[in-house]
Structures are given as structure tokens and as C-alpha cells.
Amino acid sequence: MGKLVVLRFGIGSLTTGFSVILQIGEENARPTSEVAGALPPDPELLTQFQQWQTLYRNLDFAGRPMGIAKKPFPASAAACRQAGQELGDRLNHWLQSAPFRPIREKWLEKLQPQDVIRIIIQTEDLDLPKLPWHLWEMFDRYSKAEMGVAESGYEQVNPPATVLHAGNDRESTPVKVLALLGDSTGIQLQADRQLLEQLPHAAVTFLVEPALQDLSDRLWEQHWDILFFAGHSSSQAHSSSQAPSSSQVQSGRIFINATESLTMAQLRYALRKAVDGGMKLAIFNSCDGLGMAHELADLRIPQVIVMREPVPDRVAQEFLKYFLQAYAQGETLYLSVRQARERLQGLENQFPCASWLPVMFQNLAELPPTWQELAGLEGDVKKQVQPRKILQKIGKILATTIMTTAVVMGVRSLGLLQPLELQAYDQLLQLRPAERPDNRLLVVTITEEDVQAQAKEQRQGSLSDVSLNKLLEKLEAAQPLAIGLDIYRDYPVQNLPRLADRLRQSDRLIGICKVSDPQANRAGISPPPEIPGDRLGFSDLIPDADNVIRRQLLALTPPPNSSCTTAYAFSVQLALRYLSTRNIALKFAPDGIWLLGKLRLQPLESHSGGYQGIDAWGHQILLNYRKVPTSIASTVTLSQVLNNQFDANAVKDKIVLIGTTAESFQDYSLIPYQNQQGQIQPGRVQKIPGVMLQAQQISQILSAALEGRSLIWTATLGQETLWVLLWSMAGGLLAGWVQRSRVLGLSSAVAIALLYGFCWLVFAQWAGWIPLIPAAIALLASVATVRLLKIQNL
To answer: I need a surface site. Which of 52, 299, 542, 737 has the fewest CB within 10 A?
Structure first.
């Protein structure tokens, strides 16, 4: 079943702005997610739409308009296309507004690109349905989504029992279509008629240029599933005391023959009778139908398809052909409209913006029917399936494995498997091949001996002002690209103006601070007073429940009262300084993905890989540690630098990190490795100095941006579920066909070994974290369940 997404716009207009509520849920079910946002005023958007509309309506094409006044000057197709592009850009700019961001984030969190989605714009404003919503960049991510419009008021239609019965037995009662072919002056309606005559499982009644009474009688006296109109039509706007201030009331008019036209109000009672009799869909394949759609919404018609603007005759014919082909072949109503609408793009060299025209209006209380449901064919299709005995056996096994997979994934979603998955993750991380140290980094360590050697000086923390000034002087003389001071200095320089000036003016020096956390009642640490804000990075880490650092925090929004106000991490600031010398700058994709050289950075979500329900605040990624035989980077002690016992070439064009390794300051973090005598070995977790952890984080960014070293990635929930299902099926099929218990046990062990080997290979070669523990549990659970039920003997 697909998803239903409703964007409910409050009272407002493009000149005053809107409050917006997003609701997401399954079809035919209550919404499971809701979030509020807003869109600011943007009168320029309405102006640009009106400019595009003026150009479009002055294009010189033969079509189905009636009552659309042409301006005395012709419009060019190129100007119309340009105006359309500018209108689309303006619409996307509006939808990227900060007050609308919570809706975008919830949308991206809850909806997957492969989901089948009905998107409903629910509004009383008459300008919003006119906008080209299909140009919203979000639609590019969701190929199975289509947009419709709904008004605030809606009511479910309850057809009589006799109609419902007829709908369940369509063998003698095919889909009933009332096709009204109106005034054909200047247009060809024969093509529409031929397309309708070719519909499968349909009984089409044609009314060609009828009188009003004849049309009304047909609507009153028979039950119809679909009402179709082709001909001339138009919409008019007029003032009303009940109209919103942003726009005027619209009404529609259709021209049923050469001398008569009528409004929807003149068919009000007949249409209401048709709806009560079971009519599900009205299609107006004619011009300028928004006015008709608004009027028809009051009549509770479940679905209405209209054209927004005047439609060329060729475009109307092609839309109907594409739509009926898709719908009659089993596609959903909404995806049939999208498919037909997008196929109109092939005509846009001749008819600009043709794919903009079709739009769906929806009664939110109703579900769109498929053609098979209207024709009562679903039962016939099921009767044709006569599975053999072996297929029955496989079906039972598959049913069991699907249920097993659902249970395992449900338990996983509660976070009960997270500790085991993180242990498995640590093992995969530790068993990867060794890599070379990162020669772009140099770490200046302040050892316990270095701290004690400064005892006679005035110092706070691990490094005195005098020592820091000497250190920076010697390092800067060797020309590093960046210097990172991984030492908290929340106090000003005392009696050393040269150091204060150096901290203020050095364009390569990055300082550090810590953001406060009001929820954890944890105060932050202020930055060095002399270092400006653009040369600061936060040091905050995000340990897991076992206090192991597996994730890297790249960016966050500091609390308003935090003394540390920088938005980027210390590691990010240093990496960006380094990359800027390679003419690589940080860019942002519309969906929030970071683009940095070869790096395409997708942030973690609350459910990513083995993490289930974590707080994915800020911008987090998994930390792909560089496993090296010794240290991540070359090191030199403070005393060695101050005594000129270092190679200046080891500093030139490098990122130099300054940090303490003295145990008395406890600046250590747990990582998923064992560090013993300078070697990283698999086993239990071990602590490393904070400055070395910063080096790992910087190295990850540089390696990914410059060399394309992969970040650790996870699959989507759907892909992970499919993966677990495949291994569950493997276990079920083993138990279903292997008779001997000993052979079954050995086969299961081999399957687990293959699963582990494949997960390790993907992790080691492509940095992919795919489910190991859930797949293993599902495999063994299916083996046990199928064996217990003795499905192979059924």
C-alpha cells in the first residue's frame, strides 16, 4: 500500500504567507506523522506566475480554449519557456525557506524514494493550485509520486448497496463511461471518441453536442463510473463576499453544443445524483478547468482531472491516450496521470509547458480506484492462479520467512539488537587491512614531561602562554597550511602582547571550544578570547551508550546561550582550510548533502545501519578510522619543537595539531580498537588521546575529498529488510529441503560463514555496513521454525 502525504495550508495568501501542516501516513489509515511549518510571503512568485500565464495564453496554437481573451501581441515559445523556468526557480526558492525546513526534514526522514505516494495540496487559496508544483525539486527524488489538490471541506460518498454489488460483479456490468462530446468548432474530437471506444471492459455512452435536458436526464437515470467531457470550456473569476482576500471565486463553463453553454451550478443536482450513484471520476479534457474543479469539489466528486490552462488540441488528445493506456493496464490513477503528464514533454518543442497542464482534484475522504477495481476484475485474476504442490510448499516457506523477517526487523527497530550490531561493527572495523599513515598531518604532543617542564612558568592547563608563543613562532616559520590548537583556552593572554596579536591575526590558526548542552545540564567551554569566530571549531563528541566513539559530528546549531557559537567542528574547520589551498570549497545539494571535492556526504538518520532511534542531531557521519600499524600521523613533542629538534620539512604544507597526551589531563576517548605499544590491534576497545581522535576525523575528510576514500555507508531500510528477508528465505529453504539434522546443521553453519564473509568483504572493500546480526538471527530462526513445523512434509 502506498503513502498519503497531505500539505495542509492555513488561511493566507502569497502576499501574507501561510501556515503549513504536513501529515504523512499509509493510504486508508490515520496519519502517523505530523509536523508544522510555514511559508513566508512571496508576492513576486504570484507576479512571475502571472507573467508566465500571460505569455502562455498569447502563444499561437489551435486548441480548445473558449472565452480566453488574447492580447494583441503574440508571445514566443522561447519567452514562455524562460518565464516557466524562472517561475520554477522562484517556487523552489520559496519552498526552501527556513520556516518550511521542518516539513522538508520530516518529509525526507519518513519517505523513501521508492515509495508510491499521493501528495495532496489542501488549501482554500485559489492561487496555489495554479503553481507548477511538479517542478518542486523534491519530486525528482520520488519517481512514484504525483500531486493532487483538495479543498479543506470533504465528505465520504456512500453509494447505495445495489451500486456496490454491481461494482463487485463486473462481468455483465463493465465500467460505465458517460462521454460528453461538446462543441467541436475548430477542434477534432473524433480522436477522443476512438480512444474511448477502445477501452477494455468498458461500456461507453456518447452524447454528441447534446441539449442540457438530455445531459441532465442521462445523469439522473443511469449509474456512471466515469464522466468524460471533451470540447471547449473556460473559467471566470468574480468577486464574492465569502472569497478569501487573496483571490477571487472561480467558476467554470463548458460549451455543450454550438449554441448552449452551461456552468457546473446548472448541473449541480444531476451531478450530485451521479455521485450518489457511484461516479468515481470526472475527466474534463478541455481548457482552463480550475474553475470547474473548484465547483465540482463542493459536489463531493471523488476525483476530477482538469487542465490548468488553455490546452492545444494535439496535447489534449495525447494526454488522453497516454492516460487511458496506463490506467487500463493496471497503473494507479495518480501514477497514470503523472505518466501521461510527463510524456507530454515530448511535445514541448511545439507546445511549450504542455506537461504543466493536467492536474488532479481529490475528495480526501475517498480512495482513488484502479481500473481493475472499477471493472471488477481483481477476483478473476486471482482465480486464474492455480499453484502446483511445489509452489504451495514454497509459498508456505516464504510466508514463514516473511513473518520471521518482520519479527526480526521489528525487534531491531526497538533497538534491542543495537549492542550486538555495534559489537559486530567493531569486529568488521578491526579486521580490515592496514592503511598508511596520513602524511598530510603532524601532531605536536604535550607529554607529561612537557607539562612538568613548564612548572616554573605561569600557566593554566597544559600549556603556558610563553610556551605557546614560542611553539607557534617556530611552527609558523616552517610554513604549515593550518595549525589546530586542540587545547581549551577560555581565558585571555596574560602580559604577552605578541601572543595575543598572533592569536588574533594568524590566518592559519584554528582554536577550539565546547558547545553547551542544556538538556544534559552540561556547560560548554568558551573559546580563546583572542581568536575570532571564523577560526573556531567545536570539540563536541557523540559517544555511544558504551562510551565508544563511532560517529563524527561535523556541524550543529549551538544553543542561543552557548558561549561556543561556531557551527562547524574543529576537524571540519582544519580540513576546509587545507582543501581551500586545493581550490576545493564546501557546497550543499538541495537535499542537504555536503559536496566537497570527491566527497558526497549523506548525514546519518535516527535509523541508520545498526543504529535504531539514536538522536541524530546536528550533522553526523560514521567515523571511518584509518587503521595504521603505528600512529595516524607523525608526531613530535613540545620540548622537541622548542629545542629545534625537529625537521622543518615535516611541518611545511601540513596540518599541524597541538594537543596534550598527558594522562593527568584525561583528554582520552574510547575507540573500537586496542592500542597497545603503539599498535592498533583487534580486540577490546581502548583509549586514545583526543588530539589523535581529531587527527582521525581530519584524515577521514581529507581522504574522502581528495582521494575518494569511501565513507562508511548504510543501506536504506527497504534494502536492509530485503537483505534480511533473503537470508531468512535461505534458512527456510534449507530447512524445507534438507532432511537430515546433521546436514542441516552443517549447511546452516556454512550459510552463517558465507554471510559473515560477505559482510566483511563489503565492509573492507566498499565501506558498506550491511546487517549481519539481524540476517544471521533471521536465518537461524527460519531454520528452526520451518524445521519445527515440518513444512517439507506438508
So the answer is: 737
